[in-house]
Amino acid sequence: MSQDLLLRKIQHGFDRFDADRSGELTEADHVLMGERSARALGHAQGSDAEARIVDAYVAVWRRLHLPRLQSGADAMTREQFVESMLRLTDDPAAGEATVGALAEAFLSVADADGDGVVDPREYFCFLSGHFPGITREETDLAFRRLDRDGDGTLSHSEFTSAIVEFWSSRDPQAPGNWWTGRDFSE
Ligand SMILES: [Ca+2]
Ligand SMILES: [Ca+2]
């Protein structure tokens, strides 16, 4: 079990979420992630489909992150983010409520065709929203780890448990460590 592994994952996650690389997490980052996901899925700029995805990301910011800031604050530093995520890890009930809600919100974005499961292309488009340079090869590698029953799709539980594990597990072997498309096992 590795605390260092968990810290590396949380910091890497912050870098992915800080989409405009300003060094702080803001609502603007979530708008940008939504727009990138929409673009990767082939939705036109200004389309309703794009607006739905952007709304889902903005909801993550407003419902999950913003309430943990002091009133009036509109940006979260890396230190605040790390501290906040670690606190959730050590409080399983709060973690389940928060990261579980994050997982549900991300599933609604990733499952672009709404059939209840995430296929490899949907997963690639979803991760492209977080990391524009990521390749299909990288996301396919991660996909195979997350697809625990090997049926070629990520079920609701495979997708959401990957997110919970990524943000909370200290186990180097946890499949969810692959959630961002990167190998954290070494
Ligand atoms: Ca789908
Ligand atoms: Ca599966």
What does this entry show, briefly?
The protein is mainly alpha-helical and 186 residues long. It has helices spanning 3-17, 27-40, 48-65, 78-89, 92-110, 120-130, 136-146, 156-168; strands at residues 24-25, 76-77.
What does this structure look like?
The chain has about 190 residues and is mainly α. It contains eight helices and two strands; from the N terminus they run αβααβααααα. It has a two-stranded antiparallel ribbon. Helix 2 packs antiparallel against helix 3 (about 50-65), helix 2 (about 25-40) runs antiparallel to helix 6 (about 120-130) and helix 5 crosses helix 8 (about 155-170). The two termini are about 15 Å apart. Bound molecules: calcium ion (CA) (2 copies). One calcium ion binds near residues 111, 117 and 122. Pfam families: EF-hand_5. One of its GO terms (molecular function) is calcium ion binding. It comes from Streptomyces tsukubensis (strain DSM 42081 / NBRC 108919 / NRRL 18488 / 9993).
Throw out a few tags for this protein.
EF-hand-dom_pair; Recoverin, domain 1; EF_Hand_1_Ca_BS; EF_hand_dom; binds calcium ion
Could you say which overall geometry the principal axes of the C-alpha atoms support? globular
Question: How many domain regions?
Answer: 1
- Please report the total strand number as a whole number: 2
Mean pLDDT: 89
**Beta-strand share of residues:** under 5%
CATH topology-level name = Recoverin, domain 1
Order of helices and strands: HEHHEHHHHH
Estimate the helix proportion, in percent. 55-70%
Unique ligands: calcium ion
Flag low-confidence runs: none
Enumerate how many helices there are, as a single number.
8
- Report strand order across the widest sheet: 1-2
For the record, what CATH class applies? Mainly Alpha
CATH architecture: Orthogonal Bundle
Multimerization status: single chain
Class from helix and strand fractions: mainly alpha
Cα-to-Cα separation, first versus last residue:
13 Å
Q: Quick one: biggest sheet?
A: 2 strands, antiparallel
